[in-house]
Amino acid sequence: MTDSKIIVALDYAEAAAANALVDRLDPTLCKLKVGKELFTAAGPAFVESLVKRDYDVFLDLKFHDIPNTVAKACQAAANLGVWMLNVHASGGIPMMVAAREGLDKIYGSQAPLLIAVTVLTSMDEATLGSLGIQRPLTEHVLALANMTQQAGLDGVVCSAQEASVLKQTLGSDFCLVTPGIRPVDANQDDQTRIVTPEAALALGAHYLVIGRPITQAPDPLVALNAIINNI
Ligand SMILES: O=C(O)c1cc(=O)[nH]c(=O)n1[C@@H]1O[C@H](COP(=O)(O)O)[C@@H](O)[C@H]1O
Prior knowledge:
By secondary structure, the chain is of the alpha/beta class. 44% of the residues lie in helices and 16% in strands.
């Protein structure tokens, strides 16, 4: 367990590419996130290898399914020894309660942090509208975050643009994990709701998820250290 607020998203196609970076890192420097691409390619064994190396691992598989399936998937994820895992808040309260109960049943107070994705940071109000969601984006994020808290989860994934309103409404213990982080000179890529690392922390984010600004940099370690030195 480290105090680092930076979670590096290991969005690589295979374990060897991810390990080329991980071998240069240190668990005191950052936490690590394994998402759908790397997990599908490299599997549970790769996640366990990071845990064995003492990294706090966020397993980002964004479960969204019927309650029983999600509860069992969360248990399987927790069995890998991860520090944090996530589901989609739009799966609804019964699904999130099942996830919570599934973890509590086996792990009790030792369960990994369980958080829910509100509105993806790649989405804007127009995309939400095209899905039939007419209320303002921030209102929708707040409603999903409220449901997440009611279901007993530990926090949410949101944009840092929503962090201060969520902190105000849900309290400072409710964990805010914010992707869509871009240093001022970085490419926006496919992200819409972006915030700089410094601003995200000032707005109340607990953890910053950062992928391409680090992984696609000419030297990822230099890029990570530059961010750490700025926050
Ligand atoms: O759950 C996530 O981690 C997540 C939620 C979200 O709303 N937006 C988002 O970008 N992510 C993840 O955060 C990472 C962001 O990567 P970069 O855009 O490269 O910094 C990716 O691995 C995404 O899958």
